[in-house]
């Protein structure tokens, strides 16, 4: 029920920002090392991947100054270390990746709307990946900082308005903002930080973000569409975890009603929502209704299992 498709598994391609003094032939060794690292990661040969990424990093730091290729290399190196349980190394490289990208962005201002979009997408993706590393290692304050940077990038790009006398580039930016669902990506970033806050039991902060994402999705998609229901479901879970079952009940009921009239009617997302709704109904003493809702959820699970086989 995500509002947008997830970003690609690799951000290396999107991080190839313009770099002065770059000669195509120089990239060969870096390209080969990065490709070898990707192949090793896919095969879960994490130590081998680390070796390849270290080779790529040595090359990029020698040949690329203030270039996002170094940032991309660092985040992949961080992920290969994290996969081996080398958390300290992973976090060091992750921080270096974020700092390196910030330097690259300062050094290379976008020349047109296309580069501006590329920089927004690549920087948001990298900060998000760095945040994921910290989140996985329960370094929540560091993860918060990275996810907040993702939100800042998304908001800055999505909120840009054309000047009084727009140029062709201004029109292209507006087209790109619409084509890439820039506002909806703000909501996705807010949900991710909101869910981190839930893990930390910072419920008031999480609630605020879920409300903001709901407002965005209602405006972008409409109040009768699954993306809006997604935000309501997150907010309902936040209430339920605080024991505010009556408020959660109303929201889960609304989510079910929305999904009922969409292509999500007979999906795993609906089954999960029904199960959560049933749990909340039990908490408020509505056993008969809870049983009815849960029975429907389990019947849907059986149906989905048969379809899968």
Written overview of the protein:
Helix 3 (68-83) runs antiparallel to helix 4 (87-107), helix 9 (203-221) runs antiparallel to helix 10 (226-241) and helix 11 packs antiparallel against helix 12. The protein has helices at residues 27-42, 46-63, 68-83, 87-107, 113-136, 140-158, 168-179, 182-199, 203-221, 226-241, 245-260, 268-283, 287-308. Helix content is 75%, strand content 0%. The protein starts with 26 loop residues before the first helix and ends with a helix. It has two domains: 1-200, Alpha Horseshoe (Serine Threonine Protein Phosphatase 5, Tetratricopeptide repeat); 206-309, Serine Threonine Protein Phosphatase 5, Tetratricopeptide repeat. The chain is mostly helical.
